[in-house]
Design goal:
By secondary structure, the chain is mainly α. Helices cover about 50% and strands about 0% of the residues.
């Protein structure tokens, strides 16, 4: 029987917790609840997908313009 070597679902959660702890230690933060920065969330997600050999496309500039424009499209 082949051993399951795929990363477990907890790895992303652990990475987010570790990076959040690093932020708490390196920034002067008052007690409270803080949202994880989007760039950190995106980077952790990309790394997780990379470990699973999954790639996602990048939007082209034309696609971004189309997506954000009411002047173009149907």
């Amino acid at each position: 029987m082949a051993r399951d070597i795929q990363p477990k679902s907890w790895t992303r959660s652990f990475a987010m917790q570790a990076l959040s702890a690093k932020r708490i230690l390196t920034e002067d933060m008052k007690p409270g609840v803080y949202k994880t920065r989007d760039e950190v969330d995106i980077e952790v997600a990309k790394l997780k997908l990379q470990t699973m050999n999954i790639e996602i496309d990048q939007l082209s500039n034309d696609q971004k313009e189309y997506m954000n424009s009411w002047d173009v499209g149907t």
